Amino acid sequence: MESFDELAARVDQLRDQVSHADESTQALLRETIEAITEFNRRGLITLVQMLREDERGGEVLYRAVEEPEVMALFVSHGIIRTDRTLDVLQVFEQIRPHLIASSIDMSVEEVRDDVAYVKFPTGCSAPDQQTKDEIMGVLKQRVTGLRDVIEVAPEPSTAFVSVDTLRVGPP
Length: 171
Fold this sequence. Notes:
Blueprint: H1 4-18, H2 23-53, H3 55-64, H4 68-76, H5 84-101, E1 107-112, E2 115-119, H6 129-142, E3 148-151
Parallel strand pairs: 2-3
Antiparallel strand pairs: 1-2
């Protein structure tokens, strides 16, 4: 039996494979997954409501959500909302080794209203726009409920040169 982490990795791998299929196949698969997900969600909601109505059931439910598999199930079906910041940072940590291997630097500045704001360096170390779009697309794809990923423009840097350091003529 596969571990929870192995199953999660397998789901990611399968999703990546499907992304290379033709558009009609992708659309059919998305529609199928949405229907299955909604079917399961309704059953889970009924189960949670029944457990909450019973004192002992409520205790079992609260104990159950401490298990990562149960929590992931409830979150993925919209039964429990989590802070998207944690989700974005977890995915960022998953892709960080790939970014480092490609000499790409990126930081997550903020997550607000289901939108992640990220920053890339400028100058010689800046990735091209296509690479930025791919990285931001991976974040959006892997974080359930994330509406958008927006690149934050770097702060303009200012240089201050003191007047007393300026000299005219030989030193």
